[in-house]
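Researcher: Re-running this chain for the archive, since the previous output was lost when a drive failed. Same request as before.
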Amino acid sequence: MILLDLSHTSHTQARTGIQRVARSLHAGLGATAEVITHDPYLRTWRRLAPWERENLTANGSAAVKRGAQWPWSARFTGKWRRKLGWGSALPLRLPEDATGLIVPEFFSPAVGLALPELRRQVRGPAIAVFHDAIALRLPELTPSKTVGRYPGYLQELLQFDGIAATTDDTRDTLVDYWKWLGVEDPPPVVAIRLGVDSLPTGLAAPLPGDLREPVILAVGSIEGRKNHAALLEAAESLWAAGRKFRLHLIGSAVPETAAPALARIKALQAAGRPLRYDGPVDDAALHAAYAGSAFTVYPSVMEGFGIPVIESLAHGRPCVCSGRGALGESARGGGCVPLDSVDAASLATAIGALLATPTKIAALAEEARQRTFPTWADYTRGITDWLGTLSRK
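Model: Regenerated structure tokens:
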């Protein structure tokens, strides 16, 4: 029995990149894993309650908050059980046959402090999924709370028996950081690339027949490093030059760094530009948005992986994105327009060239359809196979 720590994901219905990885591992592991959480009110580890399990299968909604949500009843119950000394009482105590531990989330300080207690209850090795070090590399574009958390988080990763990075670039960043710190004998770090959802039949459909005013789709949270401000500037320059297209944005907004892009969206909409912003959407709406687009743009400056790039390609839609770092790894192999810089001028040039040449869009779409990607089942298999090769410290 493998323990799967979903302390954050079991308390939110949001579907950001990390939550999608966590939910996909949960689905892929099935009955071979027990999902657990650290309860900050009970102050111990435990199995999930029914309401927490329901969060793992929720499809999200437009009103979803990214942070962990604990209802007052759960807070009261945890404190009450702790005062009565029932922290390890059935049915919430952990299984006694735990042979391994997987932690796929960017975990909180409270979880980090509680990990040694959890490790003592697991006979086998423990691995963590490492998503990125963007908070260290681009602190000016990252929420301050995340920036402050990262040095401690990277130190806490040293207690694991192995680290599964999402890309070669992400792996190299972590290894180089530990070398810079002078860490001796760190845990092994391997790159296990993320998967993509299997598409319902027919959704990797041919391009829309009429490309005279195509829809350009951009999927990703609205935040500083996602670089929507540059995309919007590029779009406005093309609209002002008389180019015909509609821009469709999907993704939740991160309050601390989203304000400039959100203000620009409102201003462009008020000026009558063909710009649609939906916020977060469920899977059905996301699939429909890909199917209705001619191509996508992912303007992010830096990613640990960049799921929307391979999602776009899996739907048979070309993607304009950075050709550097982790995004460059996904762009290689066809179907993308990789850029050395994702500034407004470069984005406008790339988008304008595609708008002017529908045959280029069609050729890139065919390249995308010829590519294959690991599924989430493949990713889960890669994680568990590697876990089986590790020894406990």
